[in-house]
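Supplementary Note 2. Why include the ligand at all?

Several targets in our set were suspected to adopt different conformations when bound, so apo predictions alone were not considered sufficient. For every target with a known small-molecule partner we therefore ran a joint prediction. The input for phosphoenolpyruvate is given below.
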Amino acid sequence: MLSLLRRITQEVTAAQSLQAALDIIVRRVRRAMRSEVCSIYLVDPNSQDYVLMATRGLNADAAGKLSLKSDEGLVSLVGRRAEPVNLEDAHVHPAFHYLSGTGEERYRSFLGVPIIHHRQVLGVLVVQHEDRRRFDEGEEAFLITLSAQLAGVIAHAEATGAMMSLTPNTPPSGTDFRYKGIAGSSGVAIGKAVAIYPPADLDVIPDRTPQSVASEIEDFYQALGAVRKDIKKVSSRLSQHISTDEKALFDVYLKILDDNSLAAEIVRKIEEGNWAPGALRQVVKLHISVFEQMEDPYLRERATDIRDLGRRILSHLQEKTTNVSEEITGPVILVGEELTASMLGEYPLEKVKGLVSVMGSSSSHVAILARAMGIPTVMGAVDLPYTKLDKVDMIVDGYSGQIYTYPSEAIIDSYQQIVDEERELESEYEQLKDLPCETLDGQRIGLYVNTGLLADVNRSLDRGAEGVGLYRTEVPFMIRDRFPTEAEQEQIYRQQLEGFAPAPVTIRTLDIGGDKALPYFPIKEENPFLGWRGIRVTLDHLEIFMAQIRAMIKASSGLHNLKIMLPMISNVAEVEEALALIRRAYAEVKEEGFDVVMPLVGVMIEVPSAVYQAKELAAMVDFMSVGSNDLTQYLLAVDRNNSRVANLYHTFHPAVLRALADIVERTRGEGVKLSVCGELAGDPLGAILIMAMGYDTLSMSSTSLPKVKAVLRKLSMAQAQDMLHQVLPLVHSDAVRQTMMKLVREAGVERLIRPSKTAALQ
Ligand code: PEP
Ligand code: MG
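The joint prediction is reproduced in token form.
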């Protein structure tokens, strides 16, 4: 049963269009369940009617033409209840409605299960029999399982299918296809999408119209020839060391390559208008799905060979591929399955005006980087058919998390107004640069920046930062191919410390693990966010920890503005151990003759245990900074990168706010300075609440800083505290945010928080 389910899902996933996918489902399900009828009805998003999209057993001509109203018949009953309906005799059920023209009258027994994706009913899958016989429990369970597995595939095919149904020759501009993701970095970008993908991964290759069919074909043959040569070379090099069996594998590869049919098929796809990598993906995936369905295990294995060969050809093709963003002269929006920080580095950043990632959430590190760079970003756009969107016009709304493809003039106009409004606000902020962050009733709060790159230094000073609240040292570690030496680190840290001196710079010890991997120090774990991460790694590797601390202290020589911060602290012992090592490193460096003072040392509060032990920790250190990104993830048990649960990642969750307020209470009288350096501090609504709770400083991306300052300067501490008291008793995250929006509107600062037009476009 499992292998049957898997095979059907694979076949449906490989389908080239929505209709093909639906046809495969009805054909395969009817056969698997030995039912007389199998049909799929999908909900029309405009009318909410259930349209008969595909059928085996009913009148085939009716498909696509007949539909049931949203309150008509058993099908809509299944949809409304979002539950299966299993009937021995459908005709006697009060909801039965005969859909004339289908030939349905003969069939008595009925089993319908809903197709649900992200809580939304997409349609209904139905099987029917002539006999009056209830479908048994096993059959019902099979159909439910299949429907749950296929819902995501159907949703994706639906989104793609709707778009592809427009003929490629008439540009479908003005159709305003809208996709929902998660707001990753605020702002609006209007430009052309460029689909990017990791190298040699066939699954993520986009379709693209070739500039010259002839040269695509030539490139393809060259790549094919190169792979053939590679394989022959490897085969002869290994011939003395491998068995005949293993050698046979190479012969199979060569046979597949020499057999003209695969190459001919790919060339045909190129001639039909796809570029070589796209044509290769189409043909290879089709062959893989055919082989995978074979009963014979030997033949099934050939799927792996084809996939491997496809990847080899692709990597040769990619050596030749030019960077598409060079061909596009206007603003570019990078769109990818899983954008990473390093991918950003490969494109000319002056052209990149927006980012869209199918995976990930607003607290993924690429989103944090995007906010630091001020690039509007949408994350977790799970239904976006991104491989079909290369060079397509697009709007990215980083305020609401919406994406528009093929936008109409009207929608472009509306968004252009937001862009203009943003520009005006920027110049207003500019005037506040040298003014302190002081409330109307004269309370000062420190506004610090989070940094990672050298480029952040100037950008932060330009925006009026008073110091660095979090320097993420993993960033310079990530962009190298080995651990930087102590001397190299000293130089890197010196640039940050010097750039801001005499203002303080808080350098955090290496926080790798979780989703931050070093290419040269891979950590493979089932549960990386609960695993070997942050301080846990560095205390296990004293050579890394000591080199880093010594480099920091040396770099502060003569400047005396270093603060050291420890990430992922979950118990007191870690702090004791780290403090002893820091004192040792300080003594060593001092002995070496450097002009240094013992730096202030602080911990991050980002694990629930640290909230409950805040008092004990406070007694040991000079300062504490709340990492609200991780604290939210660990308090709510929601992976900060997982788009499937991103709708549960609520930074304004009452429990998160209560924990933040609790930290202030628990550490009162301990003499520690408190700050928040997670993304919540850079959200003006969050900043108001954090200030009202009594935190001393906020640390955020340089992009957010001017906006936060503008808002806090327009409020009094008393007003902020009043807002805090109104939202603390609320029990829903949404209510907290909505109430805060209402309160800032009443206080007259909403305009500074988001352009007025954005509300109308939600
Ligand atoms: C946090 O967790 O809030 C934080 C600031 O650290 P990072 O985002 O680097 O994990
Ligand atoms: Mg963290």
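DSSP finds 29 helices and 22 strands in the chain. Confidence is low (pLDDT under 50) at residues 166-171. Comparable summaries for the other entries are listed in the accompanying table.
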